[in-house]
Amino acid sequence: MKPTGPTNIRLVRMIRNLEIASRVNDAPIWKAVAEKLKRQTRRRIEVNLWKIEKYSDGVAAVVVPGKVLGEGEITKPVIVAAAGFTRSAKRKIEEAGGKAILLDDYAKINPKGSHTRIVG
C-alpha cells in the first residue's frame, strides 16, 4: 500500500519542526497539530475568519492546523498561526491589528504553546 500524507516539502518540514518542538519542550500541543497536518489533502482543515473571531475570546493566539480562508470579518487583534493563509485572510488579520504567522515560526516564539487555542 502506498503511504499517504503530505508531499509538499514546506509542509513536511513544518510537521518535522513541530514534532521536534513537541519533544524538546514537552509540549503536546505541537504533536497534536503535527498529527492533524499529516492528514490527506481532502481531510485537512480549512477555517474561515469568522470562526477565528468566534473562538478567540480570552486567548493570546489561535492555532489552525491547516489553511485560513478570508470569509467573514475579524475585529480582534489576535495572533493567528497556521500552515497557510489566503491573501485576503492575511490582509484582514493584519488590518485588525493581529499577526498572521506560520506554525513552525510560532512554535519558536511560544515553545510551550501556552495561552493558545486550536481552532478547527
UniProtKB/TrEMBL annotation:
Family per similarity comment? Belongs to the eukaryotic ribosomal protein eL18 family.
Q: Which InterPro entries match?
A: Ribosomal_eL18, Ribosomal_eL18_arc, Ribosomal_uL15/eL18, Ribosomal_uL15/eL18_sf, Ribosomal_uL15_CS
An example of a Gene Ontology cellular component annotation for this protein is: cytosolic large ribosomal subunit
Q: Which GO terms describe its molecular function?
A: RNA binding; structural constituent of ribosome
| Gene name in the database record | rpl18e
A Gene Ontology biological process in which this protein takes part is: translation
- The protein, known as: Large ribosomal subunit protein eL18
Record keyword Ribosomal protein present: yes
Q: What is an example of a Pfam family matching this protein?
A: Ribosomal_L27A
The organism is Candidatus Korarchaeum cryptofilum
Alphabetically sorted, this entry's keywords are: Ribonucleoprotein, Ribosomal protein
Q: Which residues form the Large ribosomal subunit protein uL15/eL18 domain?
A: 64-100
Task: Give the matching Gene3D superfamilies.
Answer: 3.100.10.10
UniProt xrefs under PANTHER family: 60S RIBOSOMAL PROTEIN L18, LARGE RIBOSOMAL SUBUNIT PROTEIN EL18
Q: What lineage is this protein's organism placed in?
A: Archaea, Thermoproteota, Candidatus Korarchaeia, Candidatus Korarchaeales, Candidatus Korarchaeaceae
